[in-house]
Amino acid sequence: QVHLVESGGGSVQAGGSLRLSCVATGYTGNNYLWAWFRQAPGKEREAVAARGSTRAGVEYYADSAKGRFAISRDNSRDTLLLQMSNLKPEDTAIYYCATGPWYGASWSQASTYNYWGQGTQVTVSS
Predict the structure, then answer these.
(1) pLDDT tens-digit readout, 39-95
(2) Whole-angstrom Cα distance, residue 63 to residue 70?
(3) What residues pair up with 10 in beta bridges, in sequence order?
(4) How far is 15 from 38, CA to CA, in rounded Å?
(5) Which among 9, 43, 107, 119 is least surrounded, fewest beta carbons within 10 Å?
(6) For residue 81, what are the CA distances in angstroms to 22, 84, 90, 97, 104?
(7) Buried b vs exposed e over 42-53: b needs ≥16 C-beta within 10 Å?
């Protein structure tokens, strides 16, 4: 069983930055895919970014995140990070980290992931 705990959310003004962290406990393999999703009020959960487990893990970004967000993973601390810059009001959402063994399914589909954190709120004001 894998347990994920996110932190780092908060309230910022547009143009500001935040860094989200997700600490994992429990066994995770080298074939795991790690991702950040978000869900805004009244909207469906959407994928933001994903990264494979290995040091040279492939990275994926939603169009809305490209150039502003960076996903990384500190393998020594089993921590997934999301550095968010130039935040916009439309980035306001609950952000979730997720992981699971990856066998080639779409990185942006929630069903690809077996384990989820409880979420951390990000609020961006204009």
Answers:
(1) 999 999 999 999 988 766 789 999 999 999 999 998 788 899 999 999 999 999 999
(2) 12
(3) 122
(4) 19
(5) 43
(6) 6, 10, 20, 9, 22
(7) eeebebbbbbbb
Report the DSSP pairing between strands 32-39 and 69-74.
unpaired
d(CA 31, CA 62): 21
φ, ψ for residue 112 (rounded to 5)? -70, -20
- Which conformational region is residue 116 in: left (phi greater than 0), alpha (psi within -120 to 50 degrees), or beta? beta
Q: What pLDDT, on a 0 to 100 scale, did the predictor assign at position 56?
A: 66
Banded model confidence at residue 15, pLDDT cuts 50, 70, 90: very high
For the segment 24-37, what is each residue's pLDDT rounded down to a tens digit?
Answer: 999 878 889 999 99
Assign 3-class secondary structure to 55-122. CCCCEEECCCCCCCEEEEEEHHHCEEEEEECCCCHHHCEEEEEEEEECCCCCCCCHHHCCEECCCEEE
Unique residue bearing structure tokens 């895919």 = 33
